[in-house]
Design brief:
heterotrimer, A mainly alpha (167), B mainly alpha (174), C mainly alpha (101), A: 167 residues, mainly alpha, flat, B: 174 residues, Four Helix Bundle (Hemerythrin (Met), subunit A), 2 domains, NAD(P)H_OxRDtase_bac/plastid (chain A), transmembrane helix (chain A), membrane (chain A), NADH-quinone oxidoreductase subunit A (chain A)
């Protein structure tokens, strides 16, 4: 097999990126296969500055992370389409060939695309999927039948009595 | 004779197949997810070596950076077992493997009897590899593939609203 | 073996492994991974055919839309799996058999 692949610079860069990632993972896997494996209970606990860990590392994973990842994925797909658009949007030759129609056409096409997706973002925002849920502060609301002034008077009287006795 | 391109193509193909087999064989679901990650990276390398640069980048961004993260989040949300290791059990092992092998034989038979096989073999060294610059992709999306492109936006909107609605908690009334 | 044939072979092997995963594994998320492998196998085929063709851009466009659809499919499938998990407390497809006659 003779591949007459003439790769561009970008391809070579990306190939090194992908190959580097794979060989890093391969090194970790190889060392995992070759190393001694003698676990005991002390070694298997997660390191907590000498404290004994309580509970499980997998416990209580918030659903919010998942929802944010989901929205991220769908808007990343939008980004994929924005890249080729951006390379041809301001193309002078195409604009000159079509008397300037090309720029406006492409602009409105992409604006429609983005507008439809922004509707989804608006839905997510309106329904509160983006807002990070803060722990709600519970304010103690208690309506006492006794008016507040009575307490103040009582406190005043008691302090006067206290000071008076000390004197 | 072996040139660097050939070695790269073969090594990416081998990495892809081995990691896919690892996904099949392993019983730990998180290990399977990492095997899938290596497999997707290998496929991205194959795309790049086929001259489909933009597709390779898309594969890296959407698959390795998006779908796989979503899958790992899904694993973490559904397998919060009480300290147990996460097992992905098997069933119907023998029929499953037989079905896979049957489909493998079917596809290889179809390919070996196909009419385009000889033309692919003979022209491989003559026609140079077609490049696909991003600009031509952009022009195609904006002209010939305009309707699918706008429909993609509608589908993404539906998917966003639908999957958010499905996966929210029932008692979320806001 | 030419480069295109190697791509065909990888694509066929990935598709078969994907089918085996879908048939053999019990966990819903593992089944989703098998489906992703099968989609990728189809994508490799498109890229392989687009490699030498002068009309190559159409194969690339098809693969691009396929990847986008795969993202959408994964999002919905995982949402459904999460919902099922919250209701049944399991993702084992054998135990979710309420409608089984």
């Amino acid at each position: 097999m003779a591949t007459n692949v003439n790769l561009s610079d970008l391809s070579i860069l990306l190939l090194f990126l992908v190959g580097g990632a794979i060989f890093t993972i391969g090194g970790i896997v190889t060392s995992r296969l070759l190393r001694n494996d003698k676990p005991n209970k002390e070694k298997n606990t997660s390191y907590e500055s000498g404290e004994d860990p309580v509970g499980n590392a997998w416990g209580q994973f918030n659903l919010r992370f998942y929802l944010v990842a989901l929205m991220f994925l769908l808007f990343e797909v939008e980004l994929i389409f924005l890249f080729p658009w951006a390379t041809v949007f301001g193309d002078k030759q195409l604009i000159a060939e079509t008397n300037g129609v090309w720029g406006w056409l492409v602009w409105f096409e992409m604006m429609i695309f983005i507008f439809i997706l922004v509707l989804g973002l608006a839905y997510a925002w309106r329904k509160g999927f983006i807002a990070w849920e803060k722990p709600r502060q519970s304010v103690y609301l208690f309506k006492s039948p006794v008016p507040g002034k009575l307490y103040e008077d009582f406190n005043k009287k008691m302090t006067e009595k206290e000071y008076g006795r000390k004197k | 004779m072996l040139d660097a391109g050939t070695i790269a193509v073969y090594s990416f193909a081998v990495i892809t197949v081995i990691s896919a087999l690892f996904v099949l064989i392993t019983r730990h679901i998180l290990h399977a997810a990492f095997g899938l990650l290596v497999c997707l990276l290998g496929i991205a390398g194959l795309y790049l070596l086929a001259g489909a640069e933009f597709l390779g980048v898309t594969q890296l961004l959407v698959y390795a950076g998006g779908i796989l993260v979503l899958i790992i989040f899904g694993i973490m949300l559904t397998n919060r077992a009480d300290g147990k290791t996460i097992k992905a059990g098997n069933h119907r092992v023998i029929p499953g493997i037989l079905a896979g092998l049957a489909i493998f034989l079917l596809f290889t038979q179809i390919y070996s009897q196909s009419s385009f096989r000889d033309s692919l073999r003979s022209t491989d060294n003559n026609i140079p590899l077609m490049g696909h610059p991003v600009e031509s992709l952009g022009v195609e999306i904006m002209t010939r593939y305009l309707l699918p492109f706008e429909l993609i936006a509608v589908i993404l909107l539906v998917i966003l609203v639908g999957s958010l609605f499905i996966s929210k908690k029932e008692n979320d009334t806001n | 073996m030419t480069q295109i044939e190697l791509y065909f072979l990888v694509s066929i092997i990935l598709f078969c492994i994907g089918i085996m995963i879908v048939l053999i594994k019990k966990n819903g998320i593992m089944i989703l991974m098998g489906i992703e492998l099968m989609l990728n196998a189809a994508n490799i085929n498109f890229v392989a055919f687009a490699m030498k063709s002068p009309e190559a851009i159409h194969g690339i466009m098809f693969s691009l839309f396929l990847i986008v659809m795969a993202a959408a499919e994964a999002a919905v499938a995982l949402a459904i799996i999460l919902r099922v998990y919250r209701f049944y407390k399991t993702t084992d497809v054998d135990e979710i058999a309420d409608l089984k006659g």
